[in-house]
Write a structure and sequence with these properties.
213 residues; alpha+beta; hypothetical protein PF0899 fold; 2 domains; six-stranded mixed sheet; three-stranded antiparallel sheet; 11 strands; elongated
Length: 213
Amino acid sequence: MPVWSRSRSQLEDSSFNLDSWIRDAFAIRLARGLEAAVTLGKDSSATTLPNQASGGLLGIATIGDTTASLAAGIGWDDFTTAFGALDPAYRTPNAKWVMNSQTHAYLIGLKDGFGRPFFTPDPSGQKPFEKIMGYDVVLNQQMPAMGASATPVLFGDLQKSYMLRNDGAPSILRLNERFAELLEVGFFLYLRIGGISLNAGINTLVSIKQASS
């Protein structure tokens, strides 16, 4: 729950709506916090959250594929093996590939023997490389980077793998008195949330794991 303080002179002299800017900044901070909680099952201090002993999405995912070697990287065969490992009941239109932006960029850079991009752009979309095997790619910066024994890619229906509950919309308290002696105004963001992994262990969510060497 972030706390932010700003001087009264900044609020009074700003040439734009500073309150609105703070709300937008809080929204990004909140999204990053939720991303960590859902993906890793931990808060910003790396403390395991209640009901998240399994470790969030990464903890409940079944290893659907292990790459041939670390040097080989991740290739098409790894994606097809992971695709086949997912329980067909959960291979719904809502299934997603999840990875961070660095892994995504790595895949974009792969080329075949003729120098053509291996993962071709989606001809039906406005953004390139947003689908693999017809399923959307979701960028999640909490996903592990590529490396020895890492699991940088997930695949599955996230809605059926994880339940996230929030008690209403995020709220921002404006603290006019708390920092009054400093001529500052504080802003406090809070949101009550809860989450739990669903159906762990039955291949509702699979990962691609890189070899250790």
